[in-house]
Each structure stands twice: as structure tokens, then as C-alpha cells.
Design brief:
The chain has helices at 17-27, 47-52, 58-71, 74-79, 81-96, 105-122, 130-145, 164-192, 201-206, 222-225, 230-261, 263-276, 292-304, 336-340, 384-400, and strands spanning 30-35, 38-43, 103-104, 215-216, 226-227, 310-314, 319-321, 324-326, 331-335, 401-404, 431-436. It is globular, with a radius of gyration of 23 Å. 47% of the residues lie in helices and 10% in strands. The strands form 4 sheets. A 4-stranded mixed beta sheet has the order 1-2-9-6. A 3-stranded antiparallel beta sheet has the order 3-11-10. The chain starts with 16 loop residues before the first helix and ends in a 7-residue tail after the last strand. By secondary structure, it is an alpha+beta fold. InterPro entries: CYP450_84A (IPR053062), Cyt_P450 (IPR001128), Cyt_P450_E_grp-I (IPR002401), Cyt_P450_sf (IPR036396). GO terms for molecular function: heme binding; iron ion binding; monooxygenase activity; oxidoreductase activity, acting on paired donors, with incorporation or reduction of molecular oxygen. Pfam families: p450 (PF00067).
């Protein structure tokens, strides 16, 4: 039950991954809340929710194909020299600047991930303007997290005490101007160099560019199936920069924190790296498939700390799930965090136990098992590039350095609380003391 007009809006403080999990434990895995003039349904039920809300149209299907086949394919990710350059630069930076001194691991991996994705999107030579773009991203991130009464009661849109509308207009104008310059620069190069090879993400997208309206067909040939406008390209770039930077960096920091809090598992991972790779060279992408325990640690971290704890959808039409009527245009929240902590699916779900993934019928990252959906599930799951960057950065950090907590801190004293937002990063940055462990040069 809720109040007239506002419905259940007094429960806004409960709409976090932990708050919704508590409500689900009390009232059941499917919740229906009235939020102003809209409705919100939260699901801790696994398979039913995904199957019910997987409707998608031609544009979404072709965009998904473009991302998987062109922008984020594993083959393409492995071919990005900029990734190796940035990782080597980070390792060199740490190696040059350590003498028993502390390193802010959170800031380190966020900077690395941001640089990799920025270069992959805009080109290796496009470092100018990065600070401006980061400023714009940070403003959008703040705006996305702000409470806006108009989202729930549209006729109160004139009530804007924090000036959100003006801030959104200014941020959008800044973003448009910045990406327009990038696109114009790429188009000019394309005219001057007619046989220019496809390089960064903008080049890939411009291969589908049309000055007319968006065109989408069901052709299997992607080149003939879709034409993208400038606004389409801007939206994709925005999604990549937001969806790839903070989620990957947060996952890396959580993995390092969990291993720092579990020294025995850290020893096992590094022993595996020593055996497979050796102490006389850095890790290479071809080594990943030979590191099963490292993969287990990555999976276990994603189970405990999914990059996006609440997966958001909207019903295109009214439907029924497990006997419950869900109205059209309902906002759907699938609580990936709660699913990963479900006692019905996981033994001792709140503990970091990577070896659980060594058992038979092991669950994977790819959204085929509804008990484990850190990147979403099925056709709506995130592309493989995120996972590749995540594994790459963690492996290099663990192989090149030994990590210890500062000032004699015990593993049990490490703060493991999170902060709710679009992602759920650590409440405090992880700080650690690295020591080189390889006998080959690191810089």
C-alpha cells in the first residue's frame, strides 16, 4: 500500500541493491511499487524476469550485432596496441615510483581503464581534450545519480530546486560539441586518405554513417542492414565511455581488495601465474586460458560485487510473471547483487570462495545461468570486451607485483563497504604497498 499521488515514494531510501534485497527477503522475490505516476517492479526471481522482459526490436538487434561483431569482439580487443601500451605504462609507473610506498590502487586502475577506452574510442593520437571529456563525464555521472521529481511525477517538472534541467542542457551541449569535433576530424581524415584503414571505434561507426535518418533492416549483411546518424554515433560513444570505464575499474579494485583480504587465495593465484607464465616475463593474452584459478577469483568477485548491481528495463506491454500482473511501461529492476547473494543458489553466499567455481557444472560469465548475471543475461548481456579488460588488468597487477596492506593493517580490518549508484564501487579507495616480483625489467 502507498499514499495517494506519491505512492511508495517515501521508500526511496530502500531502492538500493541492499535495500531491495531486504524487502525481497521480507515480501518475496517479486515486488511492485508505485512511484508517483509510474510503477517499479523489482525482481530477485531469476529466470522468470529475464524471459519476460527480453522483447527487443530490429534496431536493438542490429546494434547488438554491431557491438559484438565490430566494436567489442575479442579479436578486435586483442589487436588494440593501445591496450598493451597503457598497461605497460601503468606497470612501469608503479615500478619506478615504489620504494615501500603506498599506491592508491583505485585511482591507478580507474586512470588505466579510462585511458584504454578513450584511446580505443577516439584514437591513439587523440589524447588532447581528454581532461575536458572526463569533466563532462563526471558531470553526467552526477546528474544520473540526482533525484528528479519529474521522473516520477511528470506534471511537477517545473519543480527544479537544484537546476537539473539547466545542468543537463549545458552538459549535453558540451558533449555534443566535443564529439562533433572528433567526428569531423575523422571524416576529414577519411576524405584525405581514401584508403585509410579502420582504426578506432569512431572509424568503425563512421563506416555506417548516413546524413539522412536512421535506417535499419533485418538483412544479415550488417553493412547493408543499418545506417547510423550522427546522434546514433554520439549515443554509442557515450554508452561505451560510461559503461566501460567505471564498471571495469570498480571490478578490478574489488578483485584486488578481496584477494588482499584472502591471502591464501592470493598466494594460489600468484603460484599459478609463476607456473604458467614464469617470473622471467610478463603475462600475455594467450596465457589466460591456462589460468583457471585466476578465472575463479574473477568470477567470485563479480558474483559478490556485480559491476551494475541493479539491471534496469521497461515493459513494452503488460505481461504476467509467476502469476503477477505487470503493467505496461513499468520500470523493471532486476537485482543482480541479490541474485549473487541468494542462499537458495549459493552456499555461504557472503564469503569469498573462488574454489566454488572449480566444481562440475560450473557457471559462466555469459548470462546463460540465471544465478550468475554480473553483466546481464542472454541477448541483453554486456559485450565481451569488458571482461577482457577486467582480466587483463588484474592479471598484470598480480603477476608483476606482490601486494601488502599498509601500516601493518590486518586483512580482516579492510573496509569492504560499498556506495550505491549506477555502479557500486568501494566506499573507500583500496591502498596497498607493491613490491616487484618478476626478474625481468618492468620499465
Amino acid at each position: 500500500m502507498g499514499f495517494p499521488v506519491i505512492g511508495n515514494m517515501l521508500m526511496m531510501d530502500k531502492l538500493t541493491h541492499r535495500g531491495l534485497a531486504k524487502l525481497a527477503n521480507k515480501y518475496g522475490g517479486i515486488l511492485h511499487l508505485k512511484m508517483g505516476s509510474g510503477t517499479l517492479s523489482s525482481f530477485q526471481a531469476r529466470k522468470q524476469a529475464d524471459m519476460a522482459f527480453s522483447d527487443y526490436g530490429p534496431f536493438w538487434r542490429q546494434m547488438r550485432k554491431l557491438c559484438v561483431m565490430k566494436l567489442f569482439s575479442r579479436k578486435r580487443a586483442e589487436s588494440w596496441d593501445s591496450i598493451r601500451d597503457e598497461v605497460d605504462g601503468m606497470i612501469s609507473f608503479v615500478a619506478k615510483n615504489i620504494s615501500g610506498s603506498e599506491v592508491n590502487v583505485g585511482e591507478l586502475v580507474f586512470g588505466l581503464t579510462r585511458n584504454i577506452i578513450y584511446r580505443a574510442a577516439f584514437g591513439a593520437s587523440c589524447s588532447l581534450g581528454q581532461d575536458e571529456f572526463i569533466r563532462i563525464m563526471q558531470e553526467f555521472s552526477k546528474l544520473f545519480g540526482e533525484f528528479n521529481i519529474a521522473d516520477f511525477v511528470p506534471w511537477l517538472s517545473w519543480v527544479d530546486p537544484h537546476g537539473l534541467t539547466d545542468r543537463l542542457v549545458k552538459a549535453r551541449a558540451s558533449l555534443d560539441g566535443f564529439i562533433d569535433n572528433i567526428i569531423d576530424d575523422h571524416l576529414e581524415k577519411k576524405k584525405c586518405l581514401k584508403n585509410v584503414l579502420v582504426g578506432d571505434m569512431v572509424d568503425e561507426l563512421l563506416a555506417f554513417y548516413s546524413e539522412d535518418e536512421t535506417q535499419v533492416t533485418e538483412y544479415d549483411d550488417l553493412q547493408n542492414a543499418m545506417k547510423l546518424t550522427r546522434d546514433n554515433i554520439k549515443a554509442i560513444i557515450m554508452d561505451v565511455m560510461f559503461g566501460g570505464t567505471e564498471t571495469v575499474a570498480s571490478a578490478i579494485e574489488w578483485t584486488m581488495a578481496e584477494l588482499m583480504r584472502s591471502p591464501e587465495d592470493l598466494k594460489k593465484v600468484q603460484a599459478e601465474l609463476d607456473k604458467v607464465v614464469g617470473l622471467d616475463k610478463k603475462i600475455e593474452e594467450s596465457d589466460f586460458d591456462k589460468l583457471p584459478y585466476l578465472k575463479c577469483c574473477l568470477k567470485e568477485t563479480l558474483r559478490l560485487h556485480p559491476p551494475i548491481p541493479l539491471l534496469l528495463h521497461e515493459t513494452a506491454e503488460a505481461t504476467e510473471v509467476s502469476g503477477y500482473y505487470i503493467p505496461a511501461k513499468s520500470r523493471i529492476v532486476i537485482n543482480a547483487w541479490a541474485i549473487g547473494h541468494d542462499t537458495n543458489s549459493w552456499e555461504d553466499p557472503d564469503s569469498f570462495k573462488p574454489f566454488r567455481f572449480l566444481k562440475e557444472s560450473v557457471l559462466d560469465f555469459k548470462g546463460n545461468h540465471f544465478e550468475f548475471i554480473p553483466f546481464g543475461s542472454g541477448r541483453r548481456s554486456c559485450p565481451e570486451m569488458q571482461l577482457g579488460l577486467y582480466a587483463l588488468e588484474v592479471a598484470h597487477l598480480l603477476h608483476c607485483f606482490t601486494w601488502k596492506l599498509p601500516s601493518g593493517m590486518k586483512p580482516s580490518e579492510l573496509d569492504m563497504s560499498d556506495v550505491f549508484g549506477l555502479t557500486s564501487p568501494r566506499a573507500t579507495r583500496l591502498v596497498s604497498v607493491p613490491t616487484p616480483r618478476l626478474i625481468c625489467p618492468l620499465h
